[in-house]
Amino acid sequence: MSAPDLPVSRFRVLSDWVDYNGHMGDFAYGIAFSRSATAMMEDIGLDEAYRTAARATLYTLEMRIGYQRECHEGDALMVETRVQAADPKRMHLYQEMRSGDGTLLAWCEQVLLHVARDTGTPRAAPFPPATAERLAGLSAQFRPIGRPGWLERPTGLG
C-alpha cells in the first residue's frame, strides 16, 4: 500500500497497551490509528499552528477497525494512511497497520469532519483551499488501488 509522499507512523507496542489476554488491546489499535490520522492532519496543513490560528480542527464522525493478527509488547508497528475520498468538509481515510515484517495486523477506516470553533460553537466548515487541493491529489492516488474487500462488508453477524 505504500506511497512515497504519505506519512508512515511507527510505534512499538507499549506495556500499557497490552490487555488481560496478553496481547495489544483493542483500545490501543484505536490509539495507534488515531495518532496516525493526526500525522495525516500535519501532512495536509492542519497542523498545530493552523489549528490554533484558525480555531479549527478535525472531528471523527466514524471509525471502524478490522483485526487480522495479534501483536504483543515490544512489537514494531507501522501504520500507513491513505485518503480514500474527500469532499469540501470531510475526508475518508483508509489505514493499514503492519508488523515489522510487513504482515497485515489490522485495518481502519475513518470519516473525519473539518470543524471551525471560531464562534465558540463547533460547526462544519470547508477545508482551506490548499488542504482541499492536497486531499484531492491524495484521493486520486488511492483510486487505482481500489477498495479492499473487507471495506465492502457491513458490520454485523450476517
Automatic annotation (TrEMBL):
InterPro entries, per database record: HotDog_dom_sf
Pfam (any one): 4HBT_2
Protein name, as recorded: 4-hydroxybenzoyl-CoA thioesterase
